[in-house]
Amino acid sequence: MFTRDSISGYLTNLAAAVSYPFETWRGTIGLVLVTVATYVLLILSTMPEFSLQMLGDGLHWFEYVLVSLTETIYRTDGWSGLAVIVLYALLSGVAIVNAVAQLQIVGLSSLTDLSGVVPGLLASGCASCGAGLLGFLGFAGGLAVLPYDGALLRVGGLALLVFFLGRAGHPEHCAITTEATK
Fold this sequence. Notes:
- The protein is mainly α.
- The protein is about 70% helix and about 0% strand.
- The protein starts with a helix and ends in a 14-residue tail after the last helix.
C-alpha cells in the first residue's frame, strides 16, 4: 500500500533523476546524444529491412530513410505515436546518462538500481509496429499478434522506465532512507 510519504518521495526521486543530466554540460550533451541515437534507432527499427537495404546502398540515403520513416509513423499513428517515440528516446537518454554517472560514482554494484531499465529499453517500441528494438532481435512476429498493435507494450515499457528512474533517483544521492533520516 502506498502512503503519501512514499508517493511524494518517489516523485521527488523521479524529478531528481530526470533533472540530473541538466546539472552539467557534460550530462546535457550526453543526454542529447543518447536521445538522438535512440530516436534514430527506434525510427530505423520500424522497418528494419527497408532501413538495411537503403543504408546498405550508401549512407547518402540516411536522411531520406529517417524522414520517410518518421513521416510513416506520423501518418499511421499521428502526433501521439510520434510523441511516444520522442518520450521514450528522452527517458532512455536520462536513464543511460544516470546509469553511466552511477557507474562512475559507485561502480558496478550500483547498476542494480537501474537493472529494470533494460526491459523498458527492449519492450518499448516504435509507434507504428510495436516491435521496437525487439524487431532487431527477431521477435517482431510475436509482437504483431498483441492487442492494440502493441500499444500496451509501449506504454508498459515507458512505465518501466519511469518506475525505475523514480526508484533510482539522483545518481549522486542515496535513495535509501534510514530511520535516522525519517
